[in-house]
Amino acid sequence: MSLWEYVSSRKDLILFEAAQHASMVAQCVLVAAVLGVLVGVLSYRRAHVSALALGMAGVLFTIPSLAMLGLLIPPLGLGVAPSVTAITLYALLPIIRNTVVGLRGVDAQLVDAARGIGMSGRRSLLRVELPLAWPVILTGIRVATQLAMGIGAVAAYVSGPGLGEQIFSGLARLGGANALNSTLTGTIGIILLALLFDACFVLLGRLTIPGGIRA
Amino acid sequence: MPEHGGVPIELRGVTKRFPGAGAPAVDRLDLLIPAGEIVVLLGPSGCGKTTTMRMVNRLEEPTSGDILIDGQNSRDINPNQLRRHIGYVIQQAGLFPHMTVARNVAQVPKLLGWDSRRIAGRVDELLDLVGMDPGLFRDRYPRALSGGQQQRVGVARALAADPPVLLMDEPFGALDPITRERLQDELLRLQEELAKTIVFVTHDVDEALKIGDRIAMMQRGSRIVQYAAPAEILTDPADDYVEQYLGGESSMKLLRLTKVGDIRLDRVPHAAEDADTERLLAEIEAGGDQYALIVDEARHPLRWVTVDDLAGRTGPVGDLGDPVGDTILGRMTLQDALESLLNADTDVVPVVGRRRVYSGVISLSTVQQAIQDIKARERERRRRRHDGPRG
């Protein structure tokens, strides 16, 4: 059976898994983005606090994804819960880091100008600092998304949802019928999803980065 | 919208200590800034002049002492509210790059809750005021503007809510010399209309002398060594420090501060073309001069005539004599006048006022005399002020 025949014969299942994969990644990144930007905003003014936040996210980052998923089985069991938790944790680091770097990169003179004309600290953050840091933050979210795509595949190891199932079941019976087709389908599917998401980020950047600072 | 003038600012025993720093940045400073004047805080970097300025709008909080703005203690006003009524201009303008020119200017009115129609009208009015065509620049982003244009917008933003006080922290420091001069001129022109109270921080002596109604010469710890009008600082520096900071050439600097129209000009006999030759000759000789100026009916200078031209002739003067080559304008600075005098074909050059009407003549010795007069006057004024109250 050729790859094409494999895909067309299991079209519904593959589309379902792809949709699951996309939905899982999107939701995890969304949660990670909200948490990460929040942590970044709360910590960027205090050097040691942001160092701590980044350090913790960095330690999490160094744990191999397979090990992380395995470690999450005892507390969370199998399925969606450990997958989503692991993906969100991994996605946090690039988002926190880029939020801190982005906010710190805002010209101090502009913050001074914002305060000097009578903006409150909060207004300055919302109207001046975050919009100016947004391109960097968005890049962090984009990197986090690519990361989540890959880790989402490994999540099949703990019976997580998504296209990882195709890869793992293929690898498990390598040499058997359709093993290669299954693995390839999962891999190519994830690559295509990643490209699609990336295109979305380009569009999102166009729509949300203010004209005056667009590259 | 009518623009409002300035209010006085008074600093009373203001001290600022930064944590970890030994000596205070500002040490028991007393300073009265009169309403509607430009007061320049002048001094080397690190002398505390910027800190002093930043305490006025509470970007820095004084460690002790009071700042009264129009009689009201700044401590009693919410800092954000206070700053919305004090214009703030910084080096390189500090425009928000992600906002258009119009939105940048609109920030303070927005903070004050004006409705959008009123804001839009005000934005256009202000862009006009700082010499930028609203139709052309309203929707541009700051990065599409030159440094000088950005700083104009910076000034417009500071003036948006018509604040009585303007704080300017080395606003023209990052501009090229030509643009800087032009913006200084425009600030002075604006100030003639607006009469705001302006606190202007700079380390540039020439800028201070040109811009300031008064200059506060500062030393480390914001200690004021001398607080006086530019001419007085030049003619009678309080001590060696001031003299050293001014960098010598104080007479040359006085030349730059003084306008030709403000000094006593020399007089020579002048007459119309139909004047009688013999009478003019008599007038010249009576005054002990050697020449006279012929002017037309609108009193524009036309020709020089000498005693030799006139001798032995009768009837009207007509077109005797040599055409006047150069004239000097009354609104030129003495420095420019000196430059023209050095390049002129004659030792004496006519000065013309508004509509090029003849108002006197000037020579190198006129300029020299004028400088001496100014110095003598300033010395006298200072002596009177020092002796007066006590005597």
Examine the secondary-structure arrangement and name the CATH architecture of chain A: Orthogonal Bundle
Number of helices of chain A: 9
- Dominant shape of chain B: elongated
Low-confidence stretches of chain B: none
CATH architecture of the largest domain in chain B: 3-Layer(aba) Sandwich
Enumerate the strands of the largest sheet of chain B in spatial order, edge to edge or round the barrel.
Answer: 6-7-8-3-9-10
Radius of gyration of chain A: 20 Å
Q: What's the number of domains of chain B?
A: 2
Q: Which CATH top level class of chain A fits?
A: Mainly Alpha
The figure for the number of domains of chain A is: 1
Tell me how many strands of chain B there are: 17
> Which secondary-structure class do the elements of chain A indicate?
mainly alpha
Task: Fill in the CATH topology of the largest domain in chain B.
Answer: Rossmann fold
How would you concisely characterize the structure shown here?
The complex is a heterodimer of chains A (215) and B (391). Chain A is mainly α and 215 residues long.
Overview of the molecule:
The complex is a heterodimer of chains A (215) and B (391). Chain A is mainly α. Chain A has one domain (3-213): MetI-like fold, CATH 1.10.3720.10. In chain A, 81% of the residues lie in helices and 0% in strands. Chain A is built from nine helices and no strands. In chain A, helix 5 (80-104) runs antiparallel to helix 7 (121-154), helix 6 packs across helix 7 and helix 7 runs antiparallel to helix 9 (179-208). The longest helix of chain A has 34 residues, at 121-154. The N and C termini of chain A lie far apart (48 Å). Chain B contains 15 helices and 17 strands. By secondary structure, chain B is α/β, with parallel strands linked by helices. In chain B, the strands form four sheets. Chain B has a six-stranded mixed beta sheet with strand order 6-7-8-3-9-10, with helices on both faces. Chain B has two domains: 9-258, Rossmann fold (3-Layer(aba) Sandwich), CATH 3.40.50; 262-369, CBS-domain (Roll), CATH 3.10.580. The interface between A and B is medium-sized, with 19 and 27 residues.
